[in-house]
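Hey, weird one. I pasted the Peptidyl-tRNA hydrolase YaeJ sequence into the form twice and got a warning about non-standard characters only the second time. First submission, copied straight from the form history:
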Amino acid sequence: MLEITENIHLADWEIEFQAIRAQGAGGQNVNKVASAVHLRFDIQRSSLLPIYKERLLSYSDQRITQDGVVVIKAQRFRTLEMNKEDALQRLKELIQEATKPVKLRRATKPTKGSQRRRVDEKTQRGKTKTLRNKVDF
């Protein structure tokens, strides 16, 4: 069982692991041992609340497929167990990001002083450009 927050837990059946061979250099052992991990998590079938599912599905993250399946490939470490822990941690961070409340933006107006400075800067810039023109004698 993976604990996301104190009230959000994922059961073991919701997360699927597949051991694969890691890419890159690894010496004699790399072609024999499947030490990398593909973690698959189906958002639609999960026990998450619908609002969190919607947020996860709305992310434009390359780890989330069009079918709504999160695929995380972990191959940072040399052992299968460490890569599993790494993949679970990355899934946990992704879901925690979706559980954070969305901060509402309040529209603000620029201050009078900043408006005045902006206009003054524009007029100064215009004067500088007029001085670059050809001079008529």
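That's the output from the first submission. The warning seems to come from a hidden character in my clipboard, not from the data itself. The longest helix spans residues 80-99.
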